[in-house]
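Lab meeting, item 3. Inverse folding demo.
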């Protein structure tokens, strides 16, 4: 069937369409109710179905006779090690860890935080939680203890599962001490901290609540999967919102499992038994959906890569992994390709490896610039597919559904709506705009299965943030436009969220930290263009009188504060001291104007500005400090 017909069926008759997809997975209790609504009219999928996603990812394949096939290939250039983990081995590890957690008294509905590097035990921990109906919340390792503490206080975990350490380029990340520090700061105190010792010689500080991971599983009894309701929360995944407090996205179980199975075949075009690789991190939604649950539900071998696209040891790593493990479909962020392209502009490393196994290269996480797309296509010689989605959706909303029909690629566009997503471009009045006109990207309700259920502990914020702005629609927070052929071009966030190296960050959160420095009178933090990372944060600060002479010291302190509070992942490295900030007469700081000046985007000076002369002052500060789009240009084609 061709894309358009297939897509139309999903929109015209969602119940029939998703009922057909739901039978592609095994339920303990097949759902009779396909689509129902909660008290706010928000969709609930497969409400009376019962299943377990850990069973789908492991036991089902063993029962079908695939126990000796590889479930995971762990490839870790940072430790120079590789491990091939079969479904049988995965079963043994997960069932024993689940048995250990059960023995600690953790049971269905309890929450567990997982704060781990990219090692197999991170996947075992997620699947062990799912096996027992525990709700996991994986926190990305690049976040500092303070961020971890915020999440501990929001989801009140009974336990935290962590590891001795992670490894960044030339740096050990002390995960266990970070967990201890976070628990010091948080009001809620988890009962247990389960610690996996990587045996890399890193000292692990001991606390009474600590449980050694290896000892726990050595004495535990393996357990079977419990049956959970389709709408039982599988996980909470925190993501940046427009305030300092991150939002805990809740994912259901049955809708998610159905959607992921569907997407592996129809969006990614990958067959069962093939090797699939998403070069992301289990701490992000890409990791949840396409390192762990999607490929394992689909009986693919998933690659768990602990490294970087460059410097581990060089820009050939990605191509080595594809070639060595026969990867059929790969997914990464455009930033990773830009980093490789910078080191190896002519793709010399690519020529050294046979990449005949690769059918499609997917990109997402941030806007993909045309130069990066063209370079990747030219050197990999396979379709390069930019696709768009977000933590909230859990799986792609716009894509070239190559498993249905490969449509022509249009550089700059993340292609067309994926089945189930009725995507509209709206104006302020909730009216659909014409082709070519930019507006707000929204999805007409009901959303398909697998998308967010709610926000943890905050249904009001969920409604206010996503449902109230355009009644009858889910609002994505992105701007964009459609062309005459229905291809959608995402132009970027319309709120305070920025995307740094494919990592979603809140400038409002950074601004809160910057403004709390004792020498700062006022400040603005916003995202500016970065050739490598897509965007990077820039802070402009006005100092309290008498503090100006120490501007360099203060800037350094502010940078350290943000790194200490949010973490290295914020990549907050630029602070400029200015005399004043442009504001409207009512006192609102004109952040968009500040960004547009830096990025050399055409701008109008609003008539409400309180003093026009300030624009020249800002330009002069940018010039002196080499801030501006033309100052950090790398070799675009
Ligand atoms: N644990 C601890 N620290 C981490 C971390 C982790 N899991 N991940 C990143 N960091 C740190 C980095 O070490 C770096 O610290 P530094 O400022 O001391 O150098 C900082 O956070 C910023 O990291 P990053 O933005 O990743 O920059 P980088 O310079 O280390 O690497 C790239 C640049 C392009 C190689 C890297 O950003 C990359 O691989 N990007 C791909 C993005 C991706 O996969 N996104 C997922 C969404 S699909
Ligand atoms: P996250 O929730 O971390 O996955 O980030 C989601 C946000 O990243 C989206 O709302 C977009 O702003 C941006 N994004 C993700 N993929 C793309 C893409 N292919 N093109 C443009 N922006 C993207």
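The presenter then showed the designed sequence:
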């Amino acid at each position: 069937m061709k894309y358009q017909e297939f897509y139309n069926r999903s929109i015209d008759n969602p119940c029939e369409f998703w009922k057909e997809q739901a039978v592609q997975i095994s339920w303990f209790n097949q759902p009779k109710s396909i689509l129902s609504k909660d008290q706010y009219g928000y969709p609930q999928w497969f409400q009376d179905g019962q299943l377990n996603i850990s069973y789908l990812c492991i036991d089902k394949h063993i029962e079908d006779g695939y126990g000796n096939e590889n479930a995971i290939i762990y490839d870790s250039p940072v430790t120079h090690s590789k491990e091939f983990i079969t479904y049988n081995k995965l079963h043994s590890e997960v069932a024993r860890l689940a048995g250990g957690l059960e023995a600690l008294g953790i049971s269905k509905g309890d929450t567990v935080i997982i704060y781990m590097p990219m090692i197999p035990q991170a996947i075992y921990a997620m699947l062990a939680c799912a096996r027992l109906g525990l709700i996991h919340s994986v926190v990305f390792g690049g976040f500092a203890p303070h961020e971890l503490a915020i999440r501990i206080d929001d989801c009140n975990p009974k336990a935290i599962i962590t590891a001795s350490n992670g490894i960044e380029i030339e740096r050990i990340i002390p995960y266990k001490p970070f967990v201890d520090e976070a628990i010091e700061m948080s009001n809620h105190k988890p009962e247990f901290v389960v610690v996996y010792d990587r045996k890399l010689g890193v000292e692990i500080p001991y606390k009474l609540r600590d449980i050694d991971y290896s000892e726990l599983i050595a004495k535990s009894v393996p357990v079977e999967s419990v049956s959970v309701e389709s709408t039982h929360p599988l996980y909470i995944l925190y993501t940046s919102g427009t305030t300092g407090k991150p939002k805990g996205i809740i994912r259901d179980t049955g809708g998610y499992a159905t959607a992921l199975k569907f997407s592996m075949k129809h969006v990614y075009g990958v067959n069962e038994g093939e090797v699939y690789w998403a070069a992301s991190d289990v701490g992000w939604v890409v990791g949840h959906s396409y390192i762990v649950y999607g490929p394992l539900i689909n009986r693919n071998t998933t690659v768990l890569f602990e490294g970087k696209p460059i410097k581990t040891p060089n820009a050939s790593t990605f191509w080595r992994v594809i070639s060595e493990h026969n990867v059929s479909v790969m997914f990464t962020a455009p930033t990773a390709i830009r980093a490789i392209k910078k080191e190896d502009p002519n793709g010399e490393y690519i020529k050294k490896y046979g990449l005949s196994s690769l059918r499609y290269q997917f990109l997402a996480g941030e806007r993909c610039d045309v130069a990066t797309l063209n370079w990747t296509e030219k050197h990999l010689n396979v379709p390069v597919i930019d696709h768009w989605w977000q933590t909230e959706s859990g799986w792609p909303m716009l894509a070239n559904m190559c498993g249905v029909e490969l449509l022509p690629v249009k550089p700059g566009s993340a292609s067309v709506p994926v089945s189930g997503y009725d995507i509209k471009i709206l104006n302020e009045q909730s009216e659909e705009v014409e082709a070519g006109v930019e507006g707000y990207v929204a999805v007409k309700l009901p959303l398909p299965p697998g998308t967010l259920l709610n926000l943890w502990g905050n249904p009001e914020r969920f409604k206010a943030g996503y449902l109230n702005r355009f009644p009858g629609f889910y609002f994505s927070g992105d701007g964009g436009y459609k062309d005459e052929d229905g291809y959608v071009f995402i132009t970027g966030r319309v709120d305070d969220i920025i995307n740094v190296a494919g990592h979603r960050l809140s400038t409002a959160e950074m601004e809160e930290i910057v403004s709390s420095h004792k020498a700062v009178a006022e400040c603005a933090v916003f995202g500016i263009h970065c050739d490598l990372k897509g965007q990077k944060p820039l802070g402009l600060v006005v100092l309290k009188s008498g503090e100006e002479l120490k501007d360099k010291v203060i800037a350094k302190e502010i940078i350290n504060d943000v790194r200490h509070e949010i973490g290295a992942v914020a990549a907050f490295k630029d602070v400029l001291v200015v005399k004043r900030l442009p504001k409207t007469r009512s006192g609102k700081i004109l952040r968009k104007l500040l960004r547009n000046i830096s990025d050399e985007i055409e701008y109008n000076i609003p008539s409400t500005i309180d003093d026009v002369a300030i624009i020249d002052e800002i330009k002069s500060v940018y010039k002196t400090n080499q801030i501006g789009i033309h100052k950090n240009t790398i070799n675009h084609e």
